[in-house]
């Protein structure tokens, strides 16, 4: 609900929907908190108007709602501690990308498993000059198209005697008795093609990768919990693995709520495009989830109850309906299901009315606000820590950067502001950061965590990397759109 067009600026303050609450909140009453100071506009770029700090009070919203809001850092901690890692599963290498190792990765073989030539050239024994076998005696040297010599993938060649040499290709098994490999560009064949001379001094073992140089069988390569990246897949294959034991991916179902949402075409007749349906599936996969479906559900309490209660996912993610307007049905649905509220509102802007609930042992619901940037705030605040714990993915190391300009703060709440990196340790705040806007974060590298009261130019702030700027694991097109509910 209130899944707005991300490329339009916010309407004037007297016509805006309150912060990231539902569009159905009653605007007739005044906010109970002072308005957030507006950010001064720059002459060369429009700045979106700031949203009011507190949504208008609505008749069916409990007056203590604000008192129950959780501080931002505490909310992330609560989400991370709400679950336990899922069971492990054995996956083929090609299916393990983005998952966490459930047990240490130990080498199944020496790497390399035999002495290997690191270069094209000649395997030589002892000091030169060296004798070449008659079939290898050509002035051209080890060029392409010649059949003589030792090639990669072949069995061990005959031993070399002191003073002998034989052609060898990169990756080929070095014959017994060889003391070095002479690179092709450093050797010269003379004496009617029977003698090999070096144009420069070579040392014992030069350009030979000895057996076990990288690791020995049984060596620990990576600990349990390490993220399976493309390089880890390559290392595992080199070390002899065909499959890996990894923590299961959390299964997630996305429910996009609202009668007003269109899935194609231009907005018309009071209806708007769904911006979150296309966004959430790929983002959740980047957080390590398996997205079972993205479904659209209308403003119908029975339809929402049926969708949540029938879901087999580990985590249900809803969009909109988390406030207390006339068609905001998430809270009533959770009460009807007997769910345990773990986080109900967070002291953060945008995204205050997000929530986290335990539906049953091992099953959770993350309720995101309906405004697009507010929903992204909910992803990073509640969904990311929860999914990280479920999938046993390592927590990213803390990172801070200095702001290139001051950022207005909220008197009480943390603010999440899109930024781009500049000069390594500096972050430039971006415009278009209203709750309904995606234009700013579409160009961003990360979000800056601005404490209550704001941050001055040059101040260090905590930084939240976006999944594709951190490692990009798991991002792919969402093909599980599902069906159901209103279009």
Oligomer: single chain
Number of strands: 27
Placed side by side, the strands forming the largest sheet appear as: 17-14-18-22-21-19
Distance between the termini: 13 Å
The shape, in one word, is elongated
Mean pLDDT: 81
Task: Give the helix proportion (percent range).
Answer: 10-25%
Given as residue ranges, the uncertain stretches (5+ residues, pLDDT < 50) are: 1-65, 137-147, 471-487
Q: Provide the structure class.
A: alpha/beta
Short note summarizing the structure:
The protein contains eight helices and 27 strands.
Q: What this model shows, in words?
A:
The protein contains 8 helices and 27 strands. It is of the alpha/beta class. The two termini are 13 Å apart. It has helices at residues 72-81, 230-238, 276-286, 301-310, 330-337, 372-390, 439-442, 467-470; strands at residues 70-71, 88-92, 105-106, 116-117, 121-124, 130-131, 165-168, 180-183, 187-190, 195-198, 208-209, 220-222, 243-247, 251-257, 261-262, 272-273, 290-297, 315-319, 340-344, 346-349, 355-360, 363-368, 400-403, 414-422, 426-429, 446-450, 460-465. Mean pLDDT is 81; it is low at 1-65, 137-147 and 471-487. The strands form 8 sheets. Strands 17-14-18-22-21-19 form a 6-stranded mixed beta sheet, sandwiched between helices. It has a 5-stranded mixed β-barrel with strand order 23-25-24-26-27.
Task: Tag the structure with descriptive keywords.
single chain; 487 residues; alpha/beta; 6-stranded mixed β-sheet; 5-stranded mixed beta barrel; 27 strands; elongated
